[in-house]
Amino acid sequence: MNERVIGKKVLVTGASSGIGQYLAIHVAQQGGIPILVARTADRLAVIADKIEESFGVACYWYEADLSNDAEWKDVIDRICYDHGSIDALINNAGMAVFDLVADAKWQDIDRMLSVNVKSLFRTTHQILPHFLQQGKGHIVNIASQAGKMATPKSAVYSATKHAVLGFTNALRMEVEKEGVFVTSVNLGPVRTNFFQQADPTGNYERAMDRIMLDPNRVALAVVNSLFTKQREINLPAWMDSGSKVYSIVPGLMERAMQKQFNKK
User: Rounded CA gap, 117 and 78, in Å?
Assistant: First the structure.
C-alpha cells in the first residue's frame, strides 16, 4: 500500500494492454481506484475483474475510441459525472506507424496526431478544471525519448511526442502554484504489443530486443511517482543521457550514431 495513493481515483487511458494494464494493477495494488479507458471492452472487463478479485478494490472501465473527438468528449463527461472527482490522470494511450515520411499513408499520420496529441490535449483540457477547483491533482503524460531525439522512420511519431513534451513542460509551469503536479514519462522501447502495429515486419523489435524495458517496472515507477513533484521519469537512463548529448551536438551524434539511428 502507498499512503499517497490509497483511495485515490486514477484515470488511465490506453489501459487494455501493455503499460496501461500494469498501471491499473499497480494503482490497485497500492490502494487506489483505477478508472480505465480503451477501445477494447472485452479486454477492459477482464482486467477490471482480475483487479477486483485480486486486490478487493473497485475498478471501473469505459470503452472509447480516443481518436474520435466527439465520442471521447462524451465519455470524459460521463466519467466526471459518474465519479464526481478524479485525483490523477495518466495519459497513456498512444500508437505509432514507423515509415519514411515520403512513404507514409495520410490516415496513419492523422491517427497518430489524433491519438497521441489531440486526445491527450482533449483529456487534459477537460479534467484540468476539476483539478484546479479541487486545488490538487496529478497529470502524468506518457511521452517518449523519441520526443527528445528523433530517428528515421519515426518523424511523425517523434513530432507527436515532442508536442506532448512541450505541452507538459508549459502546463507544469502554469499550474505549479495551484496544487497540481505534472510529470512527463520519457521511455525508450518497451516490451509490449505496441510494435505489432508500429512495425509489422518485426525488424525494429528484434533489433531492440536486448534493451527493451519491462512494462511492469515502467508502470511501477510511474505509480510510485503519483502525488509527488517529480518532474520527469526517464528510462532507460543511458538513453536519456544520449538525448542530452544530442541536444548539445546533434550533428555529431547523428554522424556517430547513424547505424544505431537506422534500426526501424
Answer: 21
Q: Residue 157 belongs to what H/E stretch?
A: helix 155-175
Q: Which whole-number Å values give the CA distances from 30 to 8, 15, 24, 34, in the listed order?
A: 10, 17, 10, 11
Report pLDDT digits (tens) over 14-66: 999 999 999 999 999 999 999 999 999 999 999 999 999 999 999 999 999 98
Residue recorded with cell 491519438: 115
Q: What is the pLDDT of residue 97?
A: 95
Q: Provide the angle, in degrees to the nearest 10, between the axes of the packed helices 215-224 and 18-29.
A: 50
CB 9, CB 83: distance < 8 Å: yes
Q: For the chain, list the strands marked E by DSSP.
A: 9-13, 33-38, 60-63, 88-91, 137-142, 180-187, 232-235
Check whether 262 has a pLDDT greater than 70.
no
As a CATH number, domain 9-261 is: 3.40.50.720
Residue 157 catalytic?
A: yes
From 22, 62, 157, 204, the catalytic residue: 157
Cβ atoms of residues 184 and 165 within 8 Å: yes
pLDDT for 143-165, tens place per residue?
A: 999 999 988 899 999 999 999 99
Q: Record the pTM.
A: 0.93
- Spans of all domains in the chain: 9-261
C-alpha cell at 114: 489524433
